Amino acid sequence: MWEQIRSNRFRSVILVAGIGILLLLVGYFLGLYFFNSGIGGLIIALIIWGVLNLVAYFQGDNIMLAVSRARKISRDDHPRLYNIVEEMKIASGLDRMPDIYIIDDPALNAFATGRDSNKTAVAITSGLLQKLNRDELQGVIGHEISHIKNRDVLLMAMCSVLLGTIVILAWYGSRFMFFSGATRTRRSSSSGGGLGQLLILVVAIVLMILAPIMAQLIYFAISRRREYLADASSALYTRYPEGLASALEKLAASTSQLKSANQATAPMYIINPLHKKGMSASDLTSTHPPTSERIRILRSMSGASFIDYDRAYQQVYRTRKNLIPASAATSTGVVSLRAARLEAVEEEPNELQRARHTSDLLWRFNNFKTITCDCGTKLRVPPKFKESTIKCPHCGRIHTV
Amino acid sequence: MIALYVVIGIVVILLIAFVVTYNGLVRLRNQLKNAWAQIDVQLKRRYDLIPNLMETVKGYMKHERETLEAVTKARNVAQQAASSGAGERAKAEGELTSALARLLVVVERYPDLKANQNFLALQEELTSTENKISFSRQYYNDSVLKYNNQTQMFPSNVVASMTGFKAGEFFEVAAAEERAAPKISFTQ
């Protein structure tokens, strides 16, 4: 099954090359228009691209984690989450255990970062940690781990840098063109070819308008494809697509939006953090496939292999198109599903317990001390508390801090 | 002269193909070894957890000596089988898994256990270790399948037989009932 990643990389490279060619075209024609030299434009485009790339390469992970205000946890903070991540790391055959972050936000979402395998992280919101049971959490973490395993983070970072460069070029290009309109006559008379100049002008304008849109559409197409693949991989790792399906159901039902997400970081989340209710199914301008379709595909899988996911995909969309290259799909044998754990319902901590556990964790993050009184009251002692003893407001017992 | 170049060209291409195939096989074999080491880590983790578990449940389960002894015995047998091949080891580990499952069914009858904090922590650890065992086995078996395909399919089988790559052994669990993770419902 691991060949799948390689053959899929090839397809992605073609799409990325598509955005790259768009960028070169924009640079070339803007250069031709402003300095009568396409090469000059190309050089400017490449310089902007290079600078953005450096920023993204060295700061991408930190920016992503900082923007979402995520906090790193250790094994003792939340053993269950840590164990689940470790399980998925083992199932996917990753070399290194990713860092685990928690975002203090009631919205339900999760994302993965890490462009190389030495520095990876998964982050989930505290809301999600409360809402999901073990199987569901496993499905979500499996999805995030496969973003890391399939190198999606690197791919999407490359795409968004290309896209960003195109947007910057088009934006400044159109401003300069508008304000320098008066000086055009002199230059066009000196270069002679009036018709040629007009043609360049038209091409430049069309490119400035269309290139950002087209690049964005390609970007979204890549993103949607990677989401399907991550779903398929999650099902393969957990052998239990129902876990992810039911997690997605909970995610889709929630209406709260993640405060810290934006257009640029959206593709890294498990469902589109900016989603609006009732978005049309075939929306070309979405980073994620419609969640209802993802759930239906997962639920109609008859096994856990990529072939089964592919069949379910064809069935749901009534198409003969392959999502996963045939060469990759055939390299796995029959992969049977794991039976549902009936006792999972009983053995699990219920939602209330999970909520308490998570809030304990968040208090601890904010340096609050928790003292459990014998009467069952939990005292949260703020970090600025100066006294050496504290009285329980409920029963009056005195505790030392 | 041209014929000579053609012959040299063919030899060079064959040589490159040989090296690439050989390296691919080595990579797969290393992946296999690594996957096996992963299973090993998790199985050892389970050996370590069992004495703890015994210590915790002993006080509550005075009338279940037989079940407890079966687990301890299965653990010792499994630990001794640790140095043998995948097939034999899988059998011993299968025994241990089903002995544990029997114990954990019996645990259901002791509601007092659910108040025990030690027990709750052990519950998560055991569930997770069982999961990790099955996930590492899953990854190992996938790796074996891929490696065996490479060693048996033409043309890589030529390289494999020339350089002495042998087929890997699957880590299969013996009986169907042992396939499921043991029921660990301490909190019930």
Oligomer: heterodimer
Structural class of chain B: mainly alpha
Taken in chain order, the helices and strands of chain B follow as HHHHH
Number of domains of chain B: 1
Overall pLDDT of chain A:
77
Distance from first to last alpha carbon of chain B: 84 Å
Task: List the strand order in the largest sheet of chain A.
Answer: 1-2-4-3
Series of H and E elements of chain A: HHEHEEEHHHHHHHHHHHEEEE
What is the topological layout?
The complex is a heterodimer of chains A (401) and B (188).
Chain A (H helix, E strand, L loop, with lengths): L2 H33 L2 H30 L2 E4 L5 H14 L6 E5 L6 E4 L7 E5 H6 L2 H16 L2 H28 L4 H8 L2 H45 L2 H13 L37 H9 L6 H12 L8 H4 L14 H4 L3 H15 L3 E4 L5 E4 L7 E3 L6 E3 L1
Parallel strand pairs in A: 2-4
Antiparallel strand pairs in A: 1-2, 3-4, 5-6, 7-8
Chain B lengths: L1 H57 L6 H16 L5 H22 L9 H36 L3 H7 L26
Helix pairs in contact in B: 1-2, 1-4, 2-3
Written description of the protein model:
The complex is a heterodimer of chains A (401) and B (188). The termini of chain A are far apart. Chain A is built from 14 helices and 8 strands. Chain A has helices at residues 3-35, 38-67, 79-92, 126-131, 134-149, 152-179, 184-191, 194-238, 241-253, 291-299, 306-317, 326-329, 344-347, 351-365; strands spanning 70-73, 99-103, 110-113, 121-125, 369-372, 378-381, 389-391, 398-400. Chain A is α+β, with helices and mostly antiparallel strands and 401 residues long. In chain A, α2 (38-67) crosses α6, α6 runs antiparallel to α8 and α8 packs across α9. Residues 185-190, 277-282 and 342-346 of chain A have low confidence and may be disordered. Chain A is globular. Chain A has 2 domains: 3-329, no CATH class; 368-401, no CATH class. Chain B is mainly α and 188 residues long. Chain B has one domain: de novo design (two linked rop proteins) (Up-down Bundle). Chain B is 73% helix and 0% strand. Chain B has 5 helices and no strands. Chain B has helices at 2-58, 65-80, 86-107, 117-152, 156-162. In chain B, α1 (2-58) packs antiparallel against α2 and α1 packs antiparallel against α4 (117-152). The termini of chain B are far apart. The chains are: A alpha+beta (401), B mainly alpha (188). At the A-B interface, α3 of A face α1 and α4 of B.
